[in-house]
Amino acid sequence: MRHFLCSATMLCSLTFAVTAAHAEMLFPEKDELTIGFIKLTDMAPLAIAKEMHFFEDEGLYVTLEAQANWKVLLDRVITGELDGAHMLAGQPLAATIGYGTEAHIVTPFSMDLNGNAITVSNAVWDRMKENIPVGPDGKPEHPIKADALKPVVEAYKAEGKPFKMGMVFPVSTHNYELRYWLAAGGINPGYYSPGDISGQIQADALLSVTPPPQMPATMEAGTIDGYCVGEPWNQAAVFKGIGVPVVTDYDIWKNNPEKVFGLTEEFTQKYPQTTLGLTKALIRAAMWLDENDNANREEAVEILSRPEYVGADAEVIANSMTGTFEYEKGDTRPAADFNVFFRHYATYPYYSDAVWYLTQMRRWGQIAEPQEDGWYDEVARSVYLPDIYLEAARQLIDEGHATEADFPFDTDGYKPATNEFIDGVTYDGRHPNAYLESFPIGLKGDEVIDGNKIAGR
Amino acid sequence: MTIATEMMDPEIAVRRERRIARINRAGKVLAPFGLGFVVPLMKLAAGDTPSEQWADLKQMLLVPLIGILAFLAAWAFLAPKVHTSLGAIPGPAAVFQQAEVLMDDHFAERQKAEEFYARQDERNQMLIAEGYADRVKVRPYTGKPTYFDQIWTSLLTVALGFFIGTVIAVPVGIACGLSKTFEGAINPLIQLFKPVSPLAWLPIVTMVVAALYESQNDLLPKSMVISAITVTLCSIWPTIINTALGVASIDRDLVNVGKVLQLSTWTTIRKLVLPSSLPLIFTGMRLSLGVGWMVLIAAEMLAQNPGLGKFVWDEFQNGSSDSLARIIVAVITIGLIGFFLDRVMFALQTAFTYSANR
Lengths: 457, 358
Description:
A: 457 residues, alpha/beta, B: 358 residues, mainly alpha, MetI-like fold, 2 domains
């Protein structure tokens, strides 16, 4: 049946090849959908696919619904109240391996690259600055490493004060990026264990969950000394003069994967054509966002600033969406790739991206037991669904919406090894255990957390 | 009526008297809605003595107007002095402007809905042309609900909650009033549950409704049922208490007459109990509706259920420089609707009280 429908689709699109608009002959099994999102700029592909009628072109009638927080969003996808959602890349993986809420969540579409930054309070920045070399233009040299923060954290320790930082969710990109940056500078961000899910075992810096919109206020109140969050909450600290973003995630790991579009596995099996249609519409939206060197970004900013989507002021959203980033007041630097939606094959669900998240879960003890390399690959393959992505891409090419070169058809799902990290460590997704071995801080090999200690080696 | 009329042509005077009588009657309907000031104005227009009307007008129009203007002035003066993370608190002008924006939004959204249906039609036509007529389907608009849609949802929700509440509270109240034993059994529960906040009820109601209510009905979505039941739980107490009080304080003579006539319980309730306790029942319902409306906004905010409460929460999350002004628009709307609901109940109460005092 599915094959018949596919070929019917192709026939139709051939018949009307000139207009290329008749991709709509896809027959989704379920065509009225509710999709959840969190009010963040990286939900853009969803808003664009709806506003530009890309969903409707696939015969899908989609209602977008803002959710209160990541937990509610995940729970509602699992119960089926939402058909799919904008998710943290770690969420489908954690849910599938049963960390937190257990459910088989999958993703055929990666939503964007980069988009986060780490901000510290003015007080911390003043003490950090002493340790940062100044460039010829009189401005601090970037990227700033956590080495500069280490003496500050040690001073806090000596004074008997805890050094506290905020991130948005235990399995969020932000948590792993912040931990990565801290650990690269010799600051231990602490471990998780099955018995202690606060993630502060042996920690030099205490990390805790704070909802994104409350980050600046929480830091202003002195509850946390810094945080890692997506936009606009880093620029907000600059606008309000309460903190300084020190490093973007682009500098921590160049072109790191950020959000994904998550669905239950059951949904993709029950409604394959619907899943395909959603993927097609989202690919088109991502292409639109990056088209002609971000030519459409201004329009995207206007759409995102509407109250039903992100709703923040257009000028605040524009700051990160249009290629600059303001560190200190007056220190604005170009950041062309601060938010990438399509180029660099941003939307392809690479297994190696999934494996990286899994390595970080293992590194910090969220995956408590040692796992074979094969296990990482297996989990990645059960959650990331490039087959659906490529089928959608093939149809878009046939309909004239895209070209062959837009998609990595010949990849095996693993990006080549890269060392474009802030600490220069090389990551090869095919050898996760070897990768874990290369970090001075973090669990590796047979290590497990026993009580408050690393044991088992 | 006055000196002025005596010096006039009697026929005109009679007509004027009649007109003024009519105005007075209209005043009885207008007064509960806070429109009492219209009466002296109309009387002035009808040619009644200005000095007398002036006194009324001062009391009913001028004094409240001064109050409102003083409030607006204080607001406009003080608001810019408070700086929040979203900028200064908006003054009346900014709020009024946002009210207009919300209105425009509503019509823009209606326009988008029309375009949506046109596109859908086009698609359906194409399906027919391709020979897939069986796949033709009309789906409801998938855009966002506008401000007016949210108000409407909230009104429906409170009406549903209030209806469920009244249906439960009046019989329970009557039973309490009629039977000391029953009241003794129920009273501790009333005292226990009356002070519970909607924020505490909501999680319980959400879980229970989620477990019991499986319908995918578009007319009565789960979220609306949850909000409505929360409203019911918080708002039934005044109706129960007042109904019980009203029933318990019926004239003993009436009850004795009923006994002599050997009326059945049902007839006693219908003919004796209800008519004489109606004024207090309505007082209770009026209090209940007030509480219900207040509770509803909190419930919607917390549960993210559609309605004005969600509007407020969404705007709070948006954190745009217009957000505060929009929230204030919502606050004023909530106040106005609450006031209006109260007046409707008051008008009903007045009407029934009158007929019940036979």
